[in-house]
């Protein structure tokens, strides 16, 4: 299947493949899980709330009764939860793909911190995923798999350099969000460079969903239930918005397209909307000095170094 002929509505057969998706109970994570499961993959759906996870899994199975789906409690804002979930996920066979999707899209008005003492947006969107990717690196290497980090077109609109990643000074909700997305994209590119240098058979890619909104997405009980007001406002922006289903297309393509290369960046063809295609990440996220600074910060903050040597020797059983 060539890049020119990729059809997000007709994915390749993923039978025998195993993927873990963070933030699977709604939005992009749910629709990514739904699309992967519909193509025959075994999907590990993760989330913080067991009831919402149960609802999400049941919804996938209603649409694809023969799907292979399991659930796993994971809160990316809590490093203890990350360690626990990773230990459970590692106890099985190799992992073909890891979709690092979970995150805070609407940060709190005032700066808040997690139980670990980290700013909550950076912890949820960046630190937890950095730690999880490292903890699952050997499982990914066993399957010669890939990790996909969730980017955002916001990094091209505001060039916030995260010199203060946890915003101890100058916190605003928007700055917290954009800095976290600079972080995930820069780390995704840096991860691919480091994995290649260390001989680890894992690719790291980044994908963004464009401008995808709940108000443009079909209603699903317990999954997507926008208010009438949200529907009205989102539909006013119809020319530049798309559904969460379509927003998941670049994420899924980056995860499963055999032609997608490590270090590549994916998004909608019209930036905010459209079919998934390879794109160019913003200049700030391609700055290797910024990426190295963020990498070192995350490694220190999480105290979870990536096991390159062990992963380089890993083989699928």
UniProtKB/TrEMBL annotation:
Alphabetized UniProt keyword annotations: Oxidoreductase
Gene3D superfamilies assigned: NAD(P)-binding Rossmann-like Domain
Superkingdom of origin organism: Bacteria
Pfam family of the protein (one): adh_short
Family recorded in the similarity comment: Belongs to the short-chain dehydrogenases/reductases (SDR) family.
PANTHER family for the chain: NAD(P)-BINDING ROSSMANN-FOLD SUPERFAMILY PROTEIN (PTHR24320:SF148), RETINOL DEHYDROGENASE (PTHR24320)
Protein name: SDR family NAD(P)-dependent oxidoreductase
Organism: Microbacterium memoriense
